[in-house]
Amino acid sequence: MKLSLVELAGVAPDSDKPQALKDAVAAARQAEDLGYHRIWYAEHHDAASAASSAPEILIALAATATSRIRVGSGAVLLNHYSPYKVVENFLLLEALAPGRIDLGLGRATAGPVVDLALRRDRGVPPTDDFAEQVQEILAHLDGGFPADHPFARLDPTAGIPSRPEVWILGSSGSSAQMAGRLGLGYAFAGFINPGGAIRSLLRHGAHAAGSRSGRVGILSLSVVVADTDAEARRLSWTRTALMARLARNGTRAQVPTVEEAARELTQAQKDAPTVITDGRWPLQIAGSPQTVRDQLEQMTKAVGVEEVMVQDMVADPAARAHSRTLLAQAVNGR
Predict the structure, then answer these.
(1) What angle do CA 315, 320, 326 make, to 5 degrees?
(2) How far apart are CA 106 and CA 168, in angstroms?
(3) Whose CA is closest to 166, among 200, 146, 137, 194?
(4) How many whole angstroms separate alpha carbon 9 and alpha carbon 17?
(5) CA nearest 46: which of 239, 253, 241?
(6) Which tens digits make up the pLDDT trace of 1-55?
């Protein structure tokens, strides 16, 4: 099993965004030392709880701080940007770290105000043209425009011999099917929609065209590991409480400490399953190293993938680093 990380640059309680960014780059060094396969940086805007609003910048910093681990975006929110500019950015990163850059593409809303602020042309209603944008990305990378297309004369790849790997990120069957048909790798957000993981990843494999990343899939999960099942469950309360805070307070919500989470959550929320129960996958996996390893083995077997990408919203940076260490030791003996 391959292990990878998706890093939100979460802002720890009583800390700030500059420190969160330093921790996010340090996470890449730790992940490389522990044998993780890749680290991806998320894109979140107007968020008090996360500092990663520009994954390209963190990718560049992490790539220069490491030498082996793959580094990428999880994801660039393509609905906000020009495909050509995204290609230029990631070819520049690929030139800086050849063979180690992943271009993860997704789409999401940060709310109407942020969406409007990110747009250049605010006089035209937004449209959902994600599939067309992805195909334009691929055409820029592969020289795939017809000769009479106005973009055919552009060559952003000139002088750059390698290409970033292109991935689609999503939480639905439609995005999985699109990725498969385009021959792209697909990363499924199991921490958003755990119930859809099996259907979506199997659909991706069934439609894979065999080029680029081909049939490769990633199962992305929220995972917390501690020395005991009880301690891991306790640490997992931070994410549950943060989700509740976001629902109440929007983007101003801050990451709670475990003690704050214990006061804010109901007993039912604290007791929510953190392992597969009656065939149902939980929103978070939490437990001792052996418990988590057993859960991940069941899940990867069910969806037919060999890579798990971990999201770990743990309030204390030291506990988060320990969780990642325990997971690597349990899965890879590192």
Answers:
(1) 150
(2) 6
(3) 137
(4) 8
(5) 253
(6) 999 999 999 999 999 999 999 999 999 999 999 999 999 999 999 999 999 999 9
